[in-house]
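Sanity check. The docking grid for WTA depends on where the pocket ends up, so I'm generating a full predicted complex first rather than guessing from homology. Inputs follow.
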Amino acid sequence: MSSNNIDSALIENRQFPPASEFTDRARIKQADFDRLHQQASDDYVGFWAEQARSMLDWQTPFNDVLDDSKAPHFKWFADGTLNVSYNCLDRHLASKADKTAIIFEGEKGDTRHITYQQLTDEVSQFANALKAKGIEKGDRVVIYMPMIPEAVVAMQACARIGAIHSVVFGGFSAESLRDRINDASAKMLITADGGNRGGKIVELKSACDKAMAGGCPSIEHVIVCQRTQHDIPMQEGRDTWWHDAIKGQSSECAPVWVESEHPLFLLYTSGSTGKPKGIQHASGGYLLGAVMTNLWVFDLQDNDIFWCTADVGWITGHTYVAYGPLAAGGTLLMYEGAPTVPDAGRFWRICETHRVSIFYTAPTAIRALMKLGDDLPNNYDLSSIRLLGTVGEPINPEAWMWYHKVIGREHCPIVDTWWQTETGANMIAPLPGVIATKPGSCTIPLPGIAADVVDENGNSITEANKGGYLVITKPFPSMLRTIWGDDQRYVETYWPKFDGKYYLAGDSARRDADGYFWIMGRIDDVLNVSGHRLGTMEVESALVAHERVAEAAVVGRPDDIKGEAIFAYVVLRGTRPPDGIDEELTKELRNWVGEQIGPIAKPDNIRYADNLPKTRSGKIMRRLLRNIACGEDITSDTSTLENEDILLQLQGKS
Ligand code: WTA
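Predicted complex below; grid placement will be based on this.
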């Protein structure tokens, strides 16, 4: 663990208790909170059983709550059966058929309101179309779509028939898409002709064609939703338009009841090696986490308009767009495009127009909008907003205060939610009607979540503000079940220490004197760029795949907006450019990485050197590279360096 992560302690003493106007109508009040915590500590398994029984509809009720006999492989509610799409749709129809489930706004301003009845019909019809193309329970379906309601329809349709979806973020390149399709051996790919973003068309279908040309032998069919209506080639026999696929299909489709442990989806995320991990989630446990946190952390109520700005390509877009709000019977808002089109007031205009009451976004977006000043948000009526949320990385107190004052108008609680792709749902976050917040802290674990900060030996750190490993000490329903196709990696990555007793989150954290958690950063080689996880190795592999690159090392450096920016050190085949500058090549390499992974992975800085600093055992001295990237003094021992001169090159001084 890098000592930077573990030692830096920023002490923030401001506290913001919830206003009584919020507390009075909150779902969870102090007495509920006390009861839930008591129950979870007295009878942990009983606590989860009760939540699962009260929040989900089961086709076959479960008796087995937790099976931990094969730890770290846990099963929850294993003898119960249910259907996730039934829980998100059908079960609301008796009372909410005409309630709006999704409010959609396209980047060009087109809007749609979709009721629960309409959404159920669309999902069922599309599920029938999937069946007609031979998709069955357990088959993998990759979804590569823009932020349009059809993306949610496709996910829900898979869930309805027990197919396992794997959504690939539309910003990922053809190469990344192909790798994910092949790792999952997906039978079908669902995409769109394109999406609107930043005033341009995102060419999704052409990326699919490129991915397929590179070899995706498992794909039998491609379904293409028409969104942008620009000309794209369709391949006879392989590609079908969405509107043709649903033609003549019934809008009734009986849900396929699946075992609670049946995989609901895979979602690929970055780890510390070059290969992304297919995080596998189970149906019952995941949905429980999603619905419970929507109700408790977001206090989602019947008349709320809930807007989580995340793309469905990320876990946040799964849990707080595609599943959680629907399972809770809420109304969610989906926006297709960029926050800056036609101007940077877009988010606030959307909040005003649709009377958004709960707004959930990432610190990187908050910082970017903050930089543009208060006038933009002040021009809009944000009085409908009653609760704010943040996720993805630690939020700096300055951005928190701006969010609180300028967006929350000083009366909205802010829920800073710590969680991961692997945990499926919020883990450490305030219950907004109960917990006083502190700028920059995700506060305390939710009832039923056993989080701790431990030292090297797995002992709980009780000393205030002393950093350590963030771990979860008891299994919980919404946790990942394994890594698709690589169970060994699951065991080694998440349970490597402390005799496999604790789930190792991969973050360092400290607890203050009030027991509040403060996340300090990753302990592995994972970067957090604009709230998105990227493995340094992934970027390095992409760089060395370029014909001119011999070696590359990638580290993060702090960035005002993105949280972390990517700094790449590159050793070229052949000679180093004079003075280490070659702007043409830098541009080419940046674009190359964009093509290999996606634009978010483009290095912000590239520095050329004749060599990389290595230890005697050949390990790259990343700490040293990090020091240099941050413009800090070099604190590592450089005596083992073969060639001290490269230090000057690495620093850009020669
Ligand atoms: C970081 C996103 C501080 C953390 C839901 C974690 C956070 C990683 C927070 C997971 C937060 C997420 N405060 N750090 N509120 N939320 N992180 O899988 O490092 O994309 O391990 O899931 O983001 O990123 P992932």
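Relevant for the grid: The first strand starts at residue 66 and ends at 70.
Also worth noting: Residues 526-650 form a domain with the GMP Synthetase; Chain A, domain 3 fold (CATH 3.30.300.30).
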